[in-house]
Each structure stands twice: as structure tokens, then as C-alpha cells.
Specification:
Oligomer: single chain
Distance between the termini: 39 Å
Radius of gyration: 20 Å
Strand content: over 45%
Helix content: 10-25%
CATH architecture: Beta Barrel
Number of strands: 8
Structural class: mainly beta
Largest sheet: 8 strands, antiparallel, barrel
Number of helices: 1
CATH topology: AOC barrel-like
Shape: globular
Length: 141
Amino acid sequence: MLSALIAFAAAAAFAAAPAQAKTIKVVERARLGLVRQHGSTIDLRGKVRGTLSGPVLARFNVRLLSVTGLVTIFPKGGGSLSFSVAGRARSAAVRARFSGSVTVTGGTGRWAGARGRGSFDGVVNRRTWAATATVRARIST
């Protein structure tokens, strides 16, 4: 009886213990193409390949040398992962290199409650808005 009570108490304590956060290092390479442009706002979609891999949607507010926006990845394992981005172009040329920071703002499914930070860099064609970028981040779930 006492052993059953001890086992029950141990199981209850284990069940009540908070789950440990899991942190993963993510490296994604994105290829994006223009969906539409309205003034300084551009909507892009494409694919990311790497740790997560899957479709990606993005909406950016673009200025001559700066960009801010939201990016959502739909990883191969399900759910979605959302990022806010802020960056700068290195020039105002048609083909411009850019870099900046990413902040994980959350997600759905297995990514619900995700948080993290990282960086990105890439190249954009300002005539077609085709872009390639590499994102590096640490994400806690």
C-alpha cells in the first residue's frame, strides 16, 4: 500500500512538472517571388530549405534602404512559424544585398508558443522582387 502511494505521488509530481523548453538551431535558405505589390508593400511567396523546409509567405514594407515585415513558414512537420524582420540594404542598386534581424513571434501546432531570435542576409532584384535569403536562428518551443 505504501509503495503504491509513493508511486502515485511520484507520478503526480512528474505530471505536474513543467515541460523543458527545447531549443533548436535553424538554418533556412529561402527563394521568394513576387505575388503582388501595392505601393511600398510587397507580398512574396516561395520555399525554404533547411532545418524546417516548406512553403513560406512574406509581407514586407520596403523603403530605399530598409525593410520590415512578417514572414510565416509552414514546416514539413506541420503547423506554422512566424517571424518579424527588420533589415537594411547595402545599396539602392537594382540588385541589392541586404541583412538584418529576425524575431520569432510565435506559431501554430507544434510551434505554438515558439520564441527566438536570429539574423538573415540575402540578395533582392528590385525590378522583379525575386529574392534569395539565408536565415539563421535559435528557436525555443
